[in-house]
Write a structure and sequence with these properties.
4 copies of one chain form a homotetramer.
Chain A: H1 36-58, H2 63-98, H3 104-120
Helix pairs in contact in A: 1-2, 2-3
């Protein structure tokens, strides 16, 4: 593998999101672009789990079973978060290695703040 | 309300076992029955937050913003869990005070296991 | 086992701690009295782990290894907390079953608040 | 301070491998070297908090008060962990920017694993 992250976003892409403004080169490079489909799929499964929780409560499921399911959803969300974070950090380093601008140090600071929120949430 | 928890338990129910608590058609003695609507509403809101997460990823939102939102969903789920747990524990004590059977000690043991899962999730 | 918690504290005990004022009967019943030695031992081991952390930093140990050790200490502390909590909850139910006063509902409320702090810490 | 991280690395060190970072007599390139005194001081304070916990248990302190104190120690440990992690990540990026070897990608992978342990602990 040559470079860990390459993003083949078409030039002139429309539909910029807020994130792009953080990227100096305006390439909209997301750390997780490569894995977007996998992340989306996992989030849809989590959405299904939350709907399952609603159904459990609707049907008066035993409280402890609801709690067990909530713990499972939390773990699933954390797994997504950890994967996104890993991609973000790899991306920061890749950006630093590529020496083509960007703000890897600023992104590391943002990542540290996000990690703190995760650890405390 | 005089006592914090009153349950319209049919007279003559002796020695409820945990199994009964799982029955849909049972007496509906859920610790959280009183708050079912509030819990359902919060879960629907959480479902909406998860859908928001899917949309963010779809639109290539900035990774850190996705992480921040995941932390918010985790906290919201924890808040639901803590409320369910508080109701469950109050219910255990109410059951013990009422002295009419049930298995408050068994439920406390279940609750402790659920707390451990929450703390570690 | 007849009753889950009996506390053979001598009457007229001196050296009351703050906790006693919470007990209507002034028996100073601690939920964890039975397990005090085990809890003390675990805390001493945790103290040793923290000293190990200090030594690691002193000797410029690799950052990731320090983090791994911090996670281990956190888990050990959580295990102590979960055990204390389980004892406290069992004690609340025992107190409710014994019908001899006390404030099991108040203690459950305190426990719920403590659980919330643990889950969020 | 111009660059956020400068390491008095001996000239002529090429292609550091991770192994070197573990060597006590190595170059001392710890992400947290700059902050070693502050980290040591915080750990000593945490050690004191754990000893306080032992004393509380010894004196039969109220269970909930012990739990509150455990939560405080956990948060203090997490704060140390988050600071060490931030330094480690900044160090990875600085190393990548300096382009003089090292294995920033490997270190990011290690950091991600450590973050996962922290989030789950």
């Amino acid at each position: 593998m040559g470079r860990p992250h390459t993003y083949d976003r078409p030039a002139g892409v429309i539909g910029n999101t807020r994130g792009e403004y953080r990227s100096r080169k305006g390439t909209g490079m997301r750390g997780y672009t490569d894995k977007k489909d996998a992340v989306s799929k996992r989030l849809r499964r989590i959405e299904g789990q939350v709907r399952g929780l609603e159904r459990m409560v609707e049907e008066d499921a035993y409280c402890i079973d609801v709690l067990t399911q909530i713990s499972a959803v939390n773990r699933a969300l954390q797994a997504v978060a950890l994967e996104l974070l890993d991609d973000h950090l790899s991306h920061c380093v890749a950006e630093a290695l590529s020496q083509d601008g960007g703000d890897p140090e600023g992104k590391i600071a943002e990542a540290s703040a996000a990690i703190a929120r995760l650890v405390r949430s």
